[in-house]
Design goal:
Chain A is of the alpha/beta class and 478 residues long. Chain A folds into three domains: 250 residues, NagB/RpiA/CoA transferase-like (Rossmann fold, 3-Layer(aba) Sandwich); 85 residues, Alpha-helical ferredoxin (Fumarate Reductase Iron-sulfur Protein, Chain B, domain 2); 79 residues, no CATH class. Chain A has 22 helices and twelve strands. In chain A, the strands form three sheets. Chain A has a six-stranded parallel β-sheet with strand order 1-10-7-4-2-3, sandwiched between helices. Chain A has a four-stranded mixed β-sheet with strand order 8-5-6-9, with helices on both faces. In chain A, strands 11-12 form a two-stranded antiparallel sheet. The longest helix of chain A has 20 residues. Chain B is α/β, with parallel strands linked by helices. In chain B, 46% of the residues lie in helices and 11% in strands. In chain B, strands 2-1-3-4 form a four-stranded parallel β-sheet, sandwiched between helices. In chain B, helix 12 links the parallel strand 7 and strand 8. In chain B, helix 11 crosses helix 12. Classes of the chains: A alpha/beta (478), B alpha/beta (276). Chains A and B meet through helix 1, helix 15, helix 17, helix 18 and helix 19 of A and helix 1, helix 2, helix 3, helix 4 and helix 8 of B.
Chain lengths: 478, 276
Amino acid sequence: MKAQSVRFKARSADAMANPVLQRNLGRFATGGLGKLRADAVAAYGSQAFEDLREAAKAIRDRSLASLDVWIAQFEQEAVRRGATVLFAETAEDARDLVLEICRRHDIRKAVKSKSMLSEEAGLNEALAEAGVQPVETDLGEYIIQLAGEAPSHIIAPAVHKSRDEVSDLFEQHHGTPRKTDIPQMTREAREALRAHFLSGDLGISGGNFLIAETGSGIIVTNEGNGRMVTTLPRVHVCITGIEKVIPTLEDLSTLLRILPRSATGQAISNYASFFTGVRGEADAEGPEHMYFVLVDGGRTNLVGTDLQDMLRCIRCGACMNHCPVYGAVGGHAYGWVYPGPMGAVLTPAYVGLEEALDLPQAATLCGACSVVCPVKIPLPDLMRTLREKQVERGLRPESERVGLRLWSWFAQHPKLYALATRIAVRVMRWHADKAGMIYWMPFASGWVGSGKAGEGRFLPAPAGKTFRELLAARRRGP
Amino acid sequence: MCADVHGTGDATLAANPLSAQPIHPMRVGLLVTCLVDMMRPNIGFAALDLLESAGCSVVVPEGQTCCGQPGWNSGDRESAKALSEKLIAEFADCPWVVAPSGSCAGMVRTHYPELFRDDPLMREKARALAGRTWELTDFLANVAKVHAVPGRFSGTLTYHDTCSGLRELGVKAQPRRLLAMLPGAKLQEMTGCETCCGFGGTFAVKFSEISTLMADQKCENIAASGADAVVLGDLGCMLNIEGRLRKRGDATRVLHIAEVLAGDTGDTGEASGAGR
């Protein structure tokens, strides 16, 4: 997928000017996944949940510390059970490997369970070009595939769509009378998808985790589509990032306690589908051919750097569910596969610093993401690190650099600083109206915005004398 | 380097009835913060009065300017380092350091040690200062352990939890405990009191429209609470919320927690909202 993150400002402006999207986002923010998570944490016990976060972080850190070892063990165990393990250096390489698999097995239709890596690789477009019909079977992914859009959220890909918009899509694509009742609509989608499950000859899934101990992959889903995709077609490809390998099933059991609670507030997802090797002689179902495509896609570049913490990510989406910026602009504004705080770090890290200059800046560093992250990724710190890299690489505007340097220089010279602030507060005071508000700021026009009511704010004027002046007067006495 | 406010030192307030610890006054260095110094000096004096009424002997190190947070958050580590070294030296002989700001206290407590990852000596000094530095309400409630405050307020207040104070320092119950001591004041919580107001330092200027949308949500929640005033503990958020409320034509008062607790709420014409 080609990153559009350089257009963050324009895309976020479009998102804010779209009343339907704003209404959908508002509903998501107030009644959405964040609230469900809070209830789940309360039910689990908040201290117990903190302990669980610590344990999950430790597991991910341990996995990453010897990732090469676990990957080798995973490969050995998976191969022993009849699967083929392929490695791709880039998402494009992964795409080519999947196309090669399609050619080898004469694939006509691929049924897909949600995979963010498939988005990284732009797999659907490539499959279609190669004459393979890709069918997304996760309900949200199915909806946005019909709409010809990209996911706007990693676990709720169609969260930006209203019921009405989905009704229109179904009417148009299913050729049935328009329905607005949600259970009826999901039944209709289910019926449409059933035929695809039965006629698909390739199943493509992501992988929430890969288990080195057994050579298994696992996906957690709520709709059961994942199990269909991984068992019905004669070929199954699991495509996921190399960082998803964990050592043991014991580790998995801990992570499975925290993932659904963090993501959707569920104690457990409806399905946890394991796939281990090809169909055995005694098995009633399962694929004849099983492939794991493990993708680097920039991940090893993070190992041993000050961004390594990001590799702990288990893709629950809690960070975006709690991000006030995501809540304001939605997922598409971020312009690549991963939106929200997760994307603000992953996009520059995987696609390139220059390709996503706004993303680490478009955050108030409020910390709401890091306090809910199940593996305690210090997301604001990582965004700050990326800001530092932008400065080091000379990627910030000259005006910003000069402004900061000037401020810092004055602040290091207290006498001059005292004089400058003494003048500044008076000048600002003169520019205030009777109510004490300033409407115009030459060096920070973003603060007041344009003249429009919907933009910016006034600046409440300073009192007119600085604290240090008043304190000196107080010391001198009356 | 630490000069006493009144030049006389610690003979003050030994028998102050508001303080739980009247005998040996704690020597507190007031970290005024650059925004209080420039924009709202009365908050500095309110903090000073509160600390003194809690039985502390307050000094205001001269020459203090900015803690370096703008540089730190903008990726300019060198600027942040230079200013933090300056501040560490200025407050070196203050056994306690208190700031009327969760964001500046958070900078010193949480981030100063990170600034010196390659300089063990400075890192130790930064850690030592971090361990002595407190946000104002945290200090009053948990260190000075006050059981009364000088202010009074008649009406309903709603409290906005500012992000750094809340998430870096755990300031949540402290301001509410102190507000509960105010005669006449009733606390009415708003929806989303922990949600960022959209300030975020330079974010408000760089991403004006997103920031405004976030501030609007905050303004709506404040209005829906029906409170007479919104109270908070950080100047940046205060200017953002107040500036947006006024642009929306909303006259709800915006008060710093120090002003409210000290009884400097401008009922005699010193209103924060009205300017001066």
